[in-house]
Amino acid sequence: MYRLALRMLTRDTGKYLALVVGLTFATLLITQQGSIFLGLIKRSTGVLQNVGQPDLWVCDPRVQTVLEIRNMSDRDFERVRTVPGVAWAEPFFSSRATVELTDGSYKTAQLIGVDRSTLVGQPPEVLVGSLDDLRAPDAIMVDESSRSKLAYPEIGDTLKLNDRRAVVVGICRAKLGFDSNAMIYTTFDNARRFTPLGREKIPFILVKTQEGADVPTVASSIRERTGLGAWTRDEMEWLSTRFILTQTGIGINFGTTVLLGFIVGLAVTAAIFYQFTIENLKHFAVLKAMGTRNGVLVRMVMLQAITVGAIGFGIGSGLAGLFSLQGRRPGAELAPYLPWQLLLMCMAGMLVCIVVGSILSIRKVVRLEPAVVFK
Amino acid sequence: MSANNGGALHLRGVKKTYGVGENAVRALRGIDLDVPSSQLVMLVGPSGCGKTTLVSILSGVLDADEGSVEVFGVDWRALRSAEATKRRSELMGFVFQSFNLIPTLNVVENTSVPLLVRGLGERAAQRRAAELLIEVGLGDRLKSMPGELSGGQQQRVAIARALVGKPRLLVCDEPTAALDGRTGQRIMELIQSAARGKDEAGRDRVVVVVTHDNRIFHYADRIIEMEDGRLKPTLSQHVLEESHHVPTFDPADTITQK
Ligand SMILES: Nc1ncnc2c1ncn2[C@@H]1O[C@H](COP(=O)(O)OP(=O)(O)OP(=O)(O)O)[C@@H](O)[C@H]1O
Ligand SMILES: [Mg+2]
């Protein structure tokens, strides 16, 4: 009987295709919207992703996101260095800067400044040139994927950064930040020179704890002794994410879109399958009149539901996977992020909807008066 | 078994009303009927008189409101729904006016359904189905889809499907209504020979045919005429003539032999 159920499903080519395509699009809609949303949020912490070495990020206690700059003083910096449990602390610069291109047009860039001697916070990967060259005055490194935004500067080219001369000494690779601005690396000192308001000011302090020290304990000592904020990278990431979600329109707007996509996708799923079973109701009545038990009919419907569900989900998530792969290209404007948790959530959602859709229709099958076969 | 007198079908005081209140339709107003084995019984009467309702109740797919319904000793009204479903798969064969084949299954698959319902393996079921299809003259269409067949061929598939499980009671509701005259005759010949056949255990069977079609009246062993939810004590003149005087139903002496 179950083989018959599958044949009833797959041989009805038109409806079968409609089902599979419908479910595929539902899956695609859900995973694609979801992955763009997640990608966007992940990107909001791009600056954080590039820095792996330190254990703690220290900043003004009012800072709510890594995108926000509230400067600390050199005195703050000295105090952090002397907190027990701190192995080293280095200043870290991150701010927007304006780049004037050779053709006279302006671009906004994210300027990162790392400590001149230790280079803590350095770009994750250097493609052309040497980090040592960064120590020269006016030297900068440009992220590879950002070059297109800056008219493809080569090594030795000169850009104007906040009206000051900057010389490209290397090409690196780094994750872009939330607004996808070009990423430019330089030393902390250079960065302060490039950014007049940044003189004598420090946006972030990167802290490594001593071997064996308890990171949360050190963080709370820093907070107590200096009155500054001290966060692990994960905490900072969460802080930034929460900021995006709650303090900007993105959370509400995009969240609503995603939620709607989810609901629409799932409702469509349930509706399509319900429709399919209803159209087959007469055949189920014939089977019932011939003595097919309700339990068997229910399993037949379930089998059909799970089969189309699995195929639709498979194709849909495959397409979403391809889509997110293409977003991995360096410099891609869209950065979908498709973790397995999202796929799992989508699968669970689809499953629930297919089951709901088929339970609605199964109820009809179970209640079906076999006498309708004579109609 | 109660007062069954060895009759195959045994109905007493069967009533059925659809709906409630003002919309209530009294489809059956008290049916008493006994039918012995090995007969082809025709149920005739004007549209809406309750023929379909009566055969639905006979087949155990519809519950009567009142009265007793016994089919070969099975009291449908005493069975729970799940049990009735199982009994139907053993006892019943159906042929419908609109054939009711499953359009996405081919001829041999459709025909094998009743055996699959009973739990027979697909191979064995299809083998038996194919044998029967050859008997009804469709040996060359085993793999065809129902949509590729003419009405008469589809009805022959339906008959093969109804008979494949060797049921004891075959119920046909308007089996020739969708067919032209000649095709209808051929279908009736098949149904008639089914009535002469035996069930799985070699016992006589009963065939009940509901029809409007006076061109097939002469295939009946017995004709029962209904009117407004009741059985008529004597056949109308036109039925008598068209049936070439097949014996009538007499409620006083329930069985009248040919
Ligand atoms: N499911 C139902 N709900 C309500 N009324 C019904 C239902 N089925 C049948 N009826 C009514 O019951 C009466 C008997 O119907 P039934 O189908 O048994 O008649 P019939 O003799 O088979 O008619 P026909 O020759 O047109 O098929 C009719 O008045 C019909 O309208
Ligand atoms: Mg009818």
Protein described:
The complex is a heterodimer of chains A (375) and B (258). With 375 residues, chain A is α+β, with helices and mostly antiparallel strands. Chain A is built from eleven helices and ten strands. Chain A has helices at 2-10, 13-43, 46-49, 74-81, 188-194, 215-226, 233-247, 249-279, 281-289, 294-326, 340-367; strands at residues 56-59, 86-100, 106-114, 125-128, 139-143, 158-161, 164-173, 182-187, 204-209, 229-232. The longest helix of chain A is centred in the last third of the chain and has 33 residues, at 294-326. The two termini of chain A are 24 Å apart. Chain B has one domain: 3-Layer(aba) Sandwich (Rossmann fold), CATH 3.40.50. Chain B has helices at residues 51-58, 81-91, 107-117, 122-135, 151-164, 181-196, 237-242; strands at 9-18, 25-35, 39-44, 66-71, 74-75, 92-95, 169-173, 206-210, 222-227, 230-231. In chain B, strands 6-7-8-3-9-10 form a six-stranded mixed beta sheet, sandwiched between helices. In chain B, strands 2-1-4-5 form a four-stranded antiparallel beta sheet, covered by helices on one side. The relative contact order of chain B is 0.17. Chains A and B meet through helix 1 and helix 9 of A and helix 1, helix 2 and helix 3 of B.
Strand order, sheet with most strands of chain A = 2-3-8-5-7-6
Task: Count interface residues per chain for the largest interface.
Answer: A-B, 24 and 29 residues
Enter the CATH topology name of chain B. Answer: Rossmann fold
Radius of gyration of chain A: 29 Å
What molecules are bound to this protein?
adenosine-5'-triphosphate, magnesium ion
Order of helices and strands of chain B: EEEHEEHEHHHEHEEEH
Structural class of chain B: alpha/beta
The coarse silhouette of chain B is globular
- Enumerate the spans of chain B where pLDDT stays under 50 for 5 or more consecutive residues: 251-258
Radius of gyration of chain B: 18 Å
Strand fraction of chain B: 15-25%
CATH architecture of chain B: 3-Layer(aba) Sandwich
Q: How do the helices and strands follow one another from N- to C-terminus of chain A?
A: HHHEHEEEEEEEHEHEHHHHH
Compute the number of structural domains of chain A. 2
Largest sheet descriptor of chain B: 6 strands, mixed
The H-level CATH homologous superfamily of chain B, spelled out, is P-loop containing nucleotide triphosphate hydrolases
